[in-house]
Amino acid sequence: MGPVTRGVDAALRGWVEELAMLFEQEGLPRMAGRIFGWLLVCEPPEQTMEGLATALQGSKASMSTMTRLLHQSGLVERVRPPGARRDHFRVREQWERLWEARVQQLRAAAALLERGLALVGRRGPAARHRLAELHEQYVFFERELPRLLERWERERAERTPAVTSLSRRRNPARSYKS
Distance between CA 124 and CA 100 in Å, rounded? Predict the structure, then answer.
């Protein structure tokens, strides 16, 4: 490996670590962020647990726990290529599912906050105000995020018709307003 390749690898590994720290700020373990970041940029795109452990200098136990977490969250999928003896992991390239999950989370939070508003009716105005303000924010984002996602889909379709049609073939019933 020449010096240029080493520099690119070091820069890329630095980027993976930055992404891992971003994941950590979102409440996920840093190693989960490292795995996700690595799977975004590695070649080949499918990696065994052993390959991940080697690339990320982590233990197999940590790889097992974190790939399970990423799989359960829908960010990573487990595949077994024909003839392979071990499972491989790759990024699930159905980003729409992640945004749909966010919309569902917003909807659930808005409903929970609405129930809370009914419960604080006899409390002081400051408590009602705080809860009402947060509820209004969640209702706003619940309403606006699907519109934003639909706009994204239109813009993406205008830029890359082939990619968009492939995505729709994978998930033809996608709707953010469910």
Answer: 36
- Do both 131 and 109 map to the same domain? yes
Task: Give the model confidence (pLDDT) of 66-109 as tens digits.
Answer: 999 999 988 899 999 899 899 999 998 777 777 888 899 999 99
Mean predicted confidence (pLDDT) in 113-134: 92
Residue 112: give the domain boundaries.
95-170
The reported pLDDT for the residue numbered 24 is 95
Closest CA to 99 of 172, 43, 177: 177
Q: pLDDT value at position 99?
A: 86
Q: Which residue has the tokens 């239109």?
A: 154
Q: Tell me, what CATH number does 17's domain have?
A: 1.10.10.10
Query: Roughly how many angstroms between the first and final C-alpha of the chain, as a whole number?
Result: 51
Residue 12 and residue 81 in one domain: yes
Same domain, 110 and 127: yes
What are the Cα distances from residue 17, in Å, to 2, 12, 14, 98, 123?
22, 9, 5, 22, 46
Listed residue (48, 51, 114, 121) closest to 85, CA to CA: 48
